[in-house]
Design a protein that fits this description.
Shape: elongated
Distance between the termini: 50 Å
Strand content: under 5%
Order of helices and strands: HHHH
Structural class: mainly alpha
Number of strands: 0
Radius of gyration: 17 Å
Largest sheet: none
Helix content: over 70%
Length: 121
């Protein structure tokens, strides 16, 4: 269970870091339905789209680094404890939560910087 959890943590963190870097360095150039941070607010216009891509990328990048540091450390420290399998299960679900957590801060930032029609405040 130790190695599975470490590999899962590495893959999850690498995914967040990789997509975060991609969105920050080379965000999708136009609103599309294939790749990028896609919500109704981010798709209002090109300005909201560009803002959302870079913001979500930064959140994912930071989340991925923190995810790796926190959860890899927890797995390492708690290895061998009586409830290690249960702890690993909780950690897996927590990492899925962290992966999806990009939505909340990005949507809040969009609403702070743009009105409901996508015009910059």
């Amino acid at each position: 269970m130790f190695w599975f959890s470490m590999i899962y943590t590495s893959l999850m963190s690498s995914t967040m870091i990789g997509f975060g870097l991609l969105l920050v360095k080379k965000p999708p150039q136009g609103i599309n339905s294939f790749f990028g941070y896609r919500t109704s607010m981010s798709g209002k216009n090109n300005e909201t789209w560009d803002f959302a891509q870079k913001y979500a990328g930064k959140v994912w990048l930071l989340s991925g680094v923190l995810n790796l540091l926190l959860f890899a450390t927890l797995i390492f420290l708690l290895n061998g404890t009586p409830n290690f399998k249960n702890v690993c299960t909780i950690i897996i679900y927590a990492q899925l939560f962290v992966l999806l957590l990009v939505i909340l801060p990005t949507e809040l930032a969009l609403r702070k910087n743009f009105d409901k029609d996508g015009n910059r405040r």
